[in-house]
């Protein structure tokens, strides 16, 4: 190899070295920017989101407690007034059918919304945690001491809470099924004296078929 060729090779190596240094500097700058966004912008938003969730579930629990107390009071009031006004307060089967099916539909709709909410929360935190741990070869074995930053502690801890909504969903399914079955049984036991059009609304087989379809 001639001297000229050696000089050319040296120039090429120097040029590559310069490009490499520029690339490394760019990567470091981008990494610092990402870390700054992560700690100064993303973390406060996540903490605010968690505080919002905490407030939401607290208010939801309080609303459910108020609803339960209201229902208990309504049942006591109904039990106290029903014996003396039974012949005035007799509810038609058609009206009972509408109320029962509407209640079941509302419960099933609430169940679907609740499941969608929990699923979206879980998907969000898993996606966020996966993004944070993307550089780690084995995210499942990550310990909080591996990443001292607060955002890792928050997201990893959140993703590993292990919340299970199946118990709540099963209870809602059971209630809807029980409500529909109870009403269907009542229709079988009590003769219906409404019009033909109204009878289509409360037909036992239709009640049971509709309920099975909704619970699939």
From TrEMBL:
Protein name: DUF632 domain-containing protein
PANTHER family hit by this protein: DUF630 FAMILY PROTEIN (DUF630 AND DUF632), PROTEIN ALTERED PHOSPHATE STARVATION RESPONSE 1
Pfam short name (any one): DUF632
Record domain DUF632: where: 10-177
InterPro entries: DUF632
């Amino acid at each position: 190899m001639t001297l000229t060729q050696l000089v050319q090779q040296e120039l090429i190596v120097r040029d590559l070295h310069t490009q490499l240094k520029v690339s490394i500097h760019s990567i470091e700058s981008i990494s610092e920017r990402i870390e700054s966004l992560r700690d100064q912008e993303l973390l406060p938003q996540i903490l605010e989101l968690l505080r919002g969730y905490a407030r939401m579930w607290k208010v939801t629990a309080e609303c459910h407690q108020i609803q339960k107390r209201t229902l208990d009071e309504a049942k006591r009031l109904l039990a106290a007034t029903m014996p003396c006004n039974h012949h005035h307060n007799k509810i038609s089967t058609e009206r009972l059918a509408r109320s029962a099916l509407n209640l079941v539909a509302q419960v099933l709709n609430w169940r679907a919304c609740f499941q969608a909410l929990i699923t979206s929360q879980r998907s969000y935190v898993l996606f966020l945690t996966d993004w944070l741990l993307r550089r780690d070869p084995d995210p499942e074995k990550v310990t909080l001491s591996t990443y001292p930053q607060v955002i890792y502690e928050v997201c990893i801890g959140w993703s590993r809470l292990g919340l299970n909504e199946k118990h709540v969903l099963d209870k809602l399914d059971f209630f809807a099924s029980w409500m529909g079955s109870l009403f269907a049984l009542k229709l079988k036991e009590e003769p219906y004296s409404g019009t033909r059009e109204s009878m289509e609304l409360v037909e036992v087989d239709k009640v049971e078929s509709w309920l099975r379809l909704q619970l699939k």
